């Protein structure tokens, strides 16, 4: 291989790394907003379902200031036996709104919250998430005699098994997932899982992320998890500054987990262990490090430079100055376009806007 070929490959790798870091910096400010949205959506659908089940068919009720009516079920009493009673409602204040299947909506909202919590608190891959079982949660006794929970992650991409410590938030999420997957049964049902990568069907295990009717119960696939995150992003309406829609993906939480951990002081090699990386360079590619030293020194430089400037340059503007500044931008709106004449300068050729280079 020629040296030019190697240089082109290095340039491509650096460009890919820069795009990844730019995407991480784009998604990081929206992570807390996304988590709050899926949590509020879960609570809202839970309140709606509970109120609908307490209400008789044909009656109306109010939840969060909205009036609903529970519709009559088409199934007769014989077909209802042994199944969950559906709760279908419609909004009375919006007659054109579609009917709401409360159980389906609450189930989707819960699993969206569960997927988000496990992703952001563990940094798992999507395949590793679908392979979590009730057996993956283990108790461990430290040398000091303190009991801790550990999450055992099955080998996936690198064929390396790893163990993650469970924080209180993750323990709460796992407890809710276990209760939902178990239902009214004494334990989580053991079902087989089809591995699309290996193209094999595994032995029946108590998978955490499973759902569906009793006779059609199955483990969540990657497409279903991707759809849950995409629908939640659409509901939240995330958009970039240029108006482009932004969607959270499963691997975004993995990169954000690594970035937050390293920026908060976790050593890089420990982060690599948690992520299951064999090479530290792979972890460096995941982490969008914010150069705090550069920012701090630059702010110190600005403060030192401002100390030598006249104090009147940093005073608060008066109302008259603000009005003049706003009037300047109002005058920029012309019938033929916008005038990009700098603030505080006079127009060199009035009434000749068509040939003026400042007209955009």
Features:
four-stranded antiparallel sheet; about 350 residues; alpha+beta; single chain; 2 domains
3D architecture notes:
The protein has helices spanning 3-54, 77-80, 102-122, 126-130, 168-182, 222-236, 250-263, 268-275, 280-286, 292-307, 319-331, and strands at residues 60-63, 66-70, 88-91, 100-101, 137-141, 147-153, 162-165, 194-195, 200-201, 210-211, 218-219. By secondary structure, it is of the alpha+beta class. It has 2 domains: 18-286, hpI Integrase, Chain A (Orthogonal Bundle); 316-360, no CATH class. It has a 4-stranded antiparallel beta sheet. A 3-stranded antiparallel beta sheet has the order 5-6-7, with no helix packed on it. Strands 8-9 form a two-stranded antiparallel sheet. Strand 10 (210-211) and strand 11 (218-219) form a beta hairpin. The longest helix has 52 residues, at 3-54. The radius of gyration is 28 Å and the shape is extended. The mean pLDDT is 82.
């Amino acid at each position: 291989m020629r040296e030019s070929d190697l240089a082109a490959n290095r340039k491509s790798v650096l460009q890919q790394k820069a795009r990844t870091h730019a995407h991480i910096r784009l998604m990081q400010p929206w992570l807390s907003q996304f988590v709050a949205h899926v949590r509020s959506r879960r609570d809202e659908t839970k309140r709606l379902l509970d109120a609908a089940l307490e209400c008789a068919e044909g009656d109306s009720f109010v939840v969060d200031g909205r009036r609903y009516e529970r519709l009559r079920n088409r199934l007769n009493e014989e077909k209802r036996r042994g199944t969950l009673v559906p709760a279908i409602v419609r909004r009375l204040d919006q007659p054109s709104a579609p009917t709401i299947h409360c159980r389906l909506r609450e189930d989707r909202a819960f699993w969206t919250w569960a997927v988000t919590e496990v992703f952001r608190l563990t940094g798992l891959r999507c395949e590793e998430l679908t392979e979590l079982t009730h057996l993956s949660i283990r108790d461990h006794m430290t040398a000091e005699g303190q009991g801790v929970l550990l999450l055992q992650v099955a080998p996936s991409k690198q064929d390396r098994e790893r163990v993650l410590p469970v924080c209180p938030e993750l323990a709460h999420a796992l407890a809710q997932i276990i209760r939902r997957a178990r239902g009214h049964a004494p334990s989580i049902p053991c079902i087989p899982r089809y591995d699309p990568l290996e193209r094999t069907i595994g032995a029946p295990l108590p998978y955490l992320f499973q759902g569906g009717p009793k006779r059609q119960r199955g483990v969540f696939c990657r497409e279903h998890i991707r759809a849950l995150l995409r629908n939640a992003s659409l509901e939240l309406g995330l958009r970039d500054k240029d108006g482009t829609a932004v969607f959270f993906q499963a691997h975004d939480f993995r990169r954000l987990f690594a970035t937050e951990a390293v920026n908060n002081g976790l050593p890089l090699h420990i982060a690599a262990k948690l992520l299951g990386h064999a090479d530290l360079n792979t972890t460096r590619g995941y982490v969008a490090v914010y150069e705090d030293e550069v920012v701090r020194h630059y702010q110190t430089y600005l403060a030192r430079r401002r100390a030598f400037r006249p104090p009147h340059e940093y005073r608060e503007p008066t109302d008259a100055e603000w009005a003049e500044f706003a009037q300047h931008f109002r005058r920029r709106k012309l019938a033929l376009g916008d005038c990009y004449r700098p603030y505080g300068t006079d127009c060199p050729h009035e009434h000749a806007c068509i040939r003026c280079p400042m007209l955009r």
